[in-house]
Amino acid sequence: MPIRPARAATVPEAPGVYEFFAGGGLAGLGLAGFRTLFANDIDAAKVASWRANHSGLIHQGDVWTLETLDLPGRADLAWASSPCQDVSLAGARAGLAARRSGAFWGFWRLMQGLDAEGRGPPAIVIENVTGLLTSGAGADFATVCAALVEAGYRVGALEMDAALWLPQSRPRLFIVALRGIEGVEQAGPSGPFHSPRLVAAHARLPDAVRTGWAWWSLPVPPRRNLDLAAMLEPDAAVDWLSAHQTEALLALAGPLHRARLEAARASGERRVAAAYRRVRMEAGVKMQRLELRLDGLAGCLRTPAGGSSRQYVIVCDDSSVRARRLAGREAARLMGVPDSYRLPVAETAALKLMGDAVAVPVVRALSDGLLWPALTGRRAAA
Predict the structure, then answer these.
(1) Is 35 helix (H, G, I), strand (E, B) or coil?
(2) What is the DSSP secondary-structure string of 188-200?
(3) Contact indicator for 82, 103 with CB cutoff of 8 Å
(4) If DSSP codes are grouped into helix, strand and coil, which group holds residue 311?
C-alpha cells in the first residue's frame, strides 16, 4: 500500500486591514502582523511617504470618491484616523458636520456598502482627538457610537496617551467596535484608559447606545524608561538659534516659565526642555507666550502652521541656555517611528507628516492587547 505524504499544516492567513486617512502609514506600522489590503489618503505628499515606506495598494483622493468596488477582498479590520481639525480642542470645534471631520461619513458610507455586500469587517477602529468626546456638546461622539451600535457592533472607547510609551504627551481617543467576535471586557471603567472625560461622555450616551457599550480591557504597559533627551540628535548635528534669536524667544516666557528656566540654568546640569509658542489671553489682551516643559516630555506634536506651532528644544548646560527648533527626525522618534523610515526631505513636510499621525507604540498596544486576540483567538507575537 503506497505511503501518502503527510499533509502540510495550514497556516492561518494574517488578518487584513483597510486603512483610511492613512497619512504616512504609522497606524500600519503599529498593526504588526496585519496585511494592508488597501489604504487611502487625500494628501499627495502623505501618499508619497506611504509608498516610500510600505508596499501595497494606496489610493490618493477624497474618501467620498471611493466606492466599495475599489476595496479588494474582505478586511478583518477597518481603521479610520479621520481628520481631527474640526473636533480638536485647539480648533474651531465645528464638529462632524464640518468639511474635514465630516469625512467620517464618507468612510461610514463605505462600511455600510460593504455590509450590503456581505463584506463588512468584524472590527472597526476610529481614531481621533479627545475633543470628539465633547464636540457638539457630546452629540458627535454619541452619533458615531450610535451608528456603530445600530450596525450590530459592540462599541467601546479608550483614551490612550502616547506618554505611557513615548516621551510625548499625546492623548488620543480610540473607538473600537467588534461584531461577531469577542474582545476582552471589564465590568466597568478603570484607569488609565478610561479617563474621567470618557466616563462622562459615556454617561451622556442614549440608553440604546449604552446597551451596546463595552469597557474594553487593555494591559497597562510597563513604566516608560525614555525621556525627551534620548530622542534628540547630537548637539553638533543640528542648527541652533543665534544668541539674539534665543534671547528674543526666551523673552516670550511668562514669569512662571521663566523661573523654571532660570532654576534649570542655575543648576549647572544639562537640562532639556520642550517649548511651544502659544497665544494666551492676559488681562483681556492676546499675548504670545513661550511655554516650557522640563518633565522629560515633549508637548503634543502638531502640524507646523506659520512656524508658531513648531516645537522648540531648549538646552541648559554649564549655566548657558541654547535654543533650536525640533527636527523632523526627532519628531518621528517621538511618534515611535524607526530611523529607517524615509521622511520627506523638507523639514516642514516631515513635521506635518508626524504631527498629523498616530503614535506607533499606541497602535501596537491596542493591536496586541485587544484587536489581534479578538480576530485570531490568540495573542500577538512579540
Answers:
(1) strand
(2) S--TTTS-HHHHH
(3) yes
(4) coil
Nearest to 218 by CA among 251, 182, 190: 190
To 5 degrees, how large is the angle CA 14–CA 16–CA 22?
130
How is residue 231 written as a grid cell?
530622542
Check residue 275 and report its DSSP letter.
E
Terminus-to-terminus CA distance in the chain, angstroms? 45
Digit-coded pLDDT (tens) for 50-109: 999 999 899 999 999 999 999 999 999 999 997 744 333 334 334 345 444 468 888 999
**In sequence order, what are the residues at sequence separation of 6 or more whose Cβ sits closer than 8 angstroms to the Cβ of residue 105?**
96
Class of domain 16-222+356-376: alpha beta
Residue 368, helix vs strand vs coil: helix
Domain segments of the chain as ranges: 16-222+356-376, 234-326
DSSP 369: I
- For β-strands 58-60 and 35-41, DSSP reports them as parallel
Residue with cell 474582505: 74
pTM of the model as a whole: 0.90
Spatial contact of 107 and 120, defined as CB atoms under 8 Å apart: no
